[in-house]
Design a protein that fits this description.
The chain is α/β, with parallel strands linked by helices. The chain folds into two domains: 207 residues, Rossmann fold, CATH 3.40.50.1100; 91 residues, Rossmann fold (3-Layer(aba) Sandwich). The protein has 13 helices and ten strands. Strands 1-2-10-7-8-9 form a six-stranded mixed sheet, sandwiched between helices. Strands 5-4-3-6 form a four-stranded parallel sheet, with helices on both faces. α4 packs parallel to α5. The longest helix is centred in the middle third of the chain and has 17 residues. It starts with a helix and ends with a helix.
C-alpha cells in the first residue's frame, strides 16, 4: 500500500519532470480547476509513468519499457522513457485517436496497434515484452502508478489547504486512488467524488459489489475512461480510504460535449472529453460539491476535428 513516505518521495523525484500545475478559479463553476492538461505530455499520466519507470531496477530499465494504452498513458510513457534515455513501445487500439498516436511518436515511442479492447492491448504488450525483454509499465494497476498520481492530491492540499471536495475523472481508477492517498498524506480532510461515463460505470458497480467488477463492454465519447474494470491495486487503496470517497457520478456523452464546449468558450481551454468529465458532472448538476472544490482537468489531447464539432 502507498503511504505518505512513498507519495512525498515521488513528488520530490518529479521535480523538473512533471509540472506543478496551477489551480484556476472559475466563477461560473464556483470551483477551481486543477490544470493537469498542462503536463508536457498533455495529461496527469506523466506523474505515474515516470515514477514507475524511475523505480525499475537499472538493468530492467536499460532494456526498455512497454505499455498498453488508448493514448494518454502511452504518451506519458514515451515522454518519460525519452527523458531517461530508454526505448519505449506503446500498444494502442486500432481506434486510437490520431492526435494521441502522433503524440506517442512525437516523444520517440514505437507504436504497435492491437485490436480494440484493453484486453487486446494487454495481451499483445505482454507477448512483446516477453519476446524483447521489455519491462511492462501498466496504465493504472500498480503501486508506483498510484504513488505518482497521488502527487496531484498532495499538490491540491498544498495549494488550497482548506479544500473540501475534489472531483476526479475515473478510468482505471489510478488517479482517483492516487488523489485520495495524496490528500491523506497531506493531512487533508477533503472528500473525493469520482466521475465516469454512463457507458462505463466500472467503479460505481465495483463499489456496490465490494470488489472490482469487470464489464462486458464499454462505450463513451471519453475514450480515456472506458476501461472494462478498475485496477485491483487502485481499488484496494480506495477501500482503505473509503471514508474519503463521497461517491461516483455518471455523465453521458451530451454532458461531456457541453463541458468540452464550456471549457473552450468560457475558459479558452482545449480539453478532451475524458479530461472534461469532472466539469461535466458539475455543469450538469450530477454533483454539487461542498466548497471550496477542485475539479481535475486531466487531459488536453483533444483531436482538432472533435473540438470543432
Amino acid at each position: 500500500m502507498v503511504g505518505p513516505r512513498e507519495v512525498r518521495e515521488a513528488a520530490a523525484a518529479l521535480a523538473g519532470v512533471a509540472v506543478r500545475t496551477p489551480l484556476r478559479w472559475v466563477p461560473a463553476l464556483d470551483a477551481y480547476l486543477k490544470l493537469e492538461h498542462l503536463q508536457p505530455s498533455g495529461a496527469f499520466k506523466l506523474r505515474g509513468a515516470y515514477t514507475a519507470i524511475r523505480r525499475l531496477p537499472d538493468a530492467a530499465r536499460r532494456r526498455g519499457v512497454i505499455t498498453y494504452s488508448s493514448g494518454n498513458h502511452g504518451q506519458a510513457v514515451a515522454y518519460a522513457a525519452q527523458f531517461v534515455g530508454v526505448r519505449a513501445v506503446v500498444v494502442m487500439p486500432e481506434t486510437a485517436p490520431p492526435v494521441k498516436v502522433a503524440g506517442v511518436k512525437r516523444w520517440g515511442g514505437e507504436v504497435v496497434f492491437a485490436g480494440r479492447t484493453s484486453d487486446d492491448r494487454q495481451r499483445a504488450a505482454e507477448a512483446i515484452a516477453a519476446r524483447d525483454g521489455l519491462a511492462v509499465v501498466p496504465p493504472f494497476d500498480h503501486p508506483d502508478i498510484v504513488a505518482g498520481q497521488a502527487t496531484v492530491g498532495l499538490e491540491i492540499a498544498e495549494q488550497l489547504p482548506e479544500v473540501a471536495t475534489v472531483v476526479v475523472p475515473v478510468g482505471g481508477a489510478g488517479l482517483i486512488a492516487g488523489i485520495t492517498v495524496g490528500l491523506a498524506a497531506a493531512g487533508s480532510g477533503a472528500r473525493v467524488w469520482g466521475v465516469e461515463p454512463t457507458g462505463a460505470p466500472k467503479l460505481a458497480q465495483s463499489l456496490a459489489a465490494g470488489r472490482p467488477v469487470r464489464l462486458e463492454r464499454t462505450a463513451s465519447l471519453a475514450d480515456g475512461l472506458i476501461t472494462l474494470s478498475v485496477g485491483a491495486v487502485p481499488f484496494a487503496h480506495l477501500t482503505a480510504h473509503r471514508e474519503r470517497l463521497a461517491g461516483v457520478a455518471l455523465v453521458d456523452d451530451d454532458m461531456l460535449r457541453e463541458a468540452v464546449h464550456f471549457l473552450w468558450r468560457h475558459c479558452r481551454l482545449a480539453i478532451e472529453p475524458s479530461g472534461a468529465a469532472a466539469t461535466a458532472a458539475v455543469r450538469a448538476g450530477a454533483i454539487r460539491p461542498a466548497p471550496p472544490a477542485v475539479l481535475v482537468v486531466s487531459g488536453g489531447n483533444v483531436d482538432a476535428s472533435l473540438l470543432q464539432d
